[in-house]
From TrEMBL:
Gene3D superfamilies: Spore Coat Polysaccharide Biosynthesis Protein SpsA, Chain A (3.90.550.10). Pfam families: Glycos_transf_2. It comes from Nitrincola tibetensis. GO terms for molecular function: hexosyltransferase activity. Residues 7-161 form the Glycosyltransferase 2-like domain. InterPro entries: Glyco_trans_2-like (IPR001173), Nucleotide-diphossugar_trans (IPR029044). This is Glycosyltransferase 2-like domain-containing protein.
Amino acid sequence: MSILIAICIITYRRPEGLLKLLKSLDGLYFNMKKSPSIVLIVVDNDPHQSAQEVVSQWQPETNFNVTYHLEMEPGIPFARNRAIKEALALNVDKIAFLDDDEFVDPNWLQAMLDMQNNSNASIIWGPVFPVYEIERVPLWIIHGEFYNRQRYEDGQVLHNAASNNVLIESRVFEDQSLRFNESMRHTGGTDHLFFKQAASKGHTIVWSAKAKVWEDVPASRLTESWLCNRFLRLGNTHTITERALDPSLSKATKLALQGMIRLIPSAMALPFTPFLPKVGAMKIKRTYYRGLGMLKALINKPYQEYKPTEILTENYSNKP
């Protein structure tokens, strides 16, 4: 009997990106005697159900079993937890997560399974490479590698992961406390918190360099202001995550020192950035905004990158 894998896709108002991802999954191939059985679980976090038509039109064209679910509670962790619930109800063996602005290499899932078989790890994490929407990307973006995510050695054991390209053994979720933190619905970072908690409970995380995924980067993100906001959010969510794992005063003090070490020297250098090469100037701003984000989190000022611009549920304002 073949293993059953749920590929979970959380989507919010990206119908074109979702369709591109679904079509790429149709190209998956396997070099094993018995290919895995796959079910695709699409969780739409848009109350207007912008993904439903995409799924309905694509479903007759694929050999995969596809399920569509509307999650009315706004926020990425609610949608991810809904996907887990739907997957476990199907008694799947493994759960994968992908984002709706990505597309996969044909060997993606095979590489994930190979690494899991070789390492016996509970969680496999893989690389995500940027694909720019415009052809003439500014050179400072290319040379600065600001959109390149950190990568590791194939088979390297890690203490963290992200949900943008990950395969998880279903047994990880037998622990009911291992879910995405719904109180962080607007800040982001719930995946990093989840995987750090999983690692602390003894679940091994291993990197698969061959499990490749690509992420579309729209022109609207190729700006200095977008990057600075992202740097601030990364510092902010890093601190929120660390405080959730260790709320002690000593940890808060350590994080405050780390934030100030980043913030103070870079703040002194900021007035000189107009006279520096763009790459160097942006690296100074990266350090500054990450430090600023850390300190904002410590005084309870989270950067809510994912806060919706409209009220999505009747009792939304009363939710934690």
